[in-house]
Amino acid sequence: MLLNQKYEIYPSDEQREQLDRWISYCRQAYNSALLDKQRKYKQSKESYTRFAMQKQLKLDKSKIPFLKKIPSQPLQEVFIRLDKAFVYFFRKQANYPRLKKYKDYNSITFPQFGFKPNSHHRYAASFATNGNLQLSKLGQIPIHLHRPIDGTIKQLIIKRQGTRWYAFFSVERQVYPAPINRNLVIGIDVGLDKYAVLSDGRSFDNPRFLRQTEKKLKRAQKKLSQQKRGSANYKKQVIKIRKLHEKVANQRRDTLYKWSHNLTKYYSVIAVENLNIRNMVKNKHLAKSISDAGWGMFRNMLSYKCERNGGLLIRVNPEFTTQDCSECGTRVKKSLSIRTHICKSCGTILDRDHNASLNILRKGLEQLDQMVVMD
Ligand SMILES: [Zn+2]
Questions:
Q1: Nearest-10 crossing angle of helices 284-292, 295-308
Q2: Tell me: the pLDDT tens digits for 194-211?
């Protein structure tokens, strides 16, 4: 499987500007291919393939000189991203692909790395002999290799996160699946009060340091709204807010990383809801709390960490997981404001989210049984 290893890189101011421009070229290529695809489909139901997009790019390059200032592979990789966005959409795992805004597009991918096989020719991205990262048309960037790269490098992603830059190496590594242990199973539900509730009754809540940074951020935003737009203090406050945003994002990522690490280290099978985004949007209140808390990121981390440890992440149908009684199956309708599950049939009284996580676990085990039969 492919695993990502992340390292900080230190481009010069000039290189930062250039990387920013490259990302923006890629974003433009993505958006214009998406628009072309939509238009062609509307006009003639014709599907606009990746290869047709690449052909178009070649034509564009002869007319738009700046497209030649970026290595061609990362530019072509944009169409693979667009393809993937449509695959996820057709699998109902994502919304219909939208035009990317500046903040939604933060990376470029070099689909090949190092030297071409059996030759001295470098790909557009490689290591220089002094250990720096070497990108064609850009030069060398110092990199902090705080741990060795473990495996064969398949591709390199250069990513902007806040004011910092990172190199992600996708490396190929052999993973030996462990046998599934039915006794080490857990169901997880997205909580409304707590971050997540587990089927064994435990719950995860945002750590205090994260809540404190979030509070600071809110206060800073309020202060900004009282300042005069464009003044020196206003600009200072904008920078402060950007840094706090970054801090919140980092602290959240670290927290999710720790939780998913601990869960996947211990459990063999983890069941979560297959939250179709469209379902979530039906309930705006729920949708907001989920998107705010990075639930998608958490599930991704669980997914790849499960795979890496030889475990299994099962996505179950979210229908009625909140309503049904986890003890006897009776459907107990409840609005969002009702926080406790009370079953009149069997007398079960449980926290609403705990009841849901038990249902998620049960569904996960049912699905697991079917998978075994299918083998
Ligand atoms: Zn019941």
A1: 60
A2: 889 999 999 998 888 888
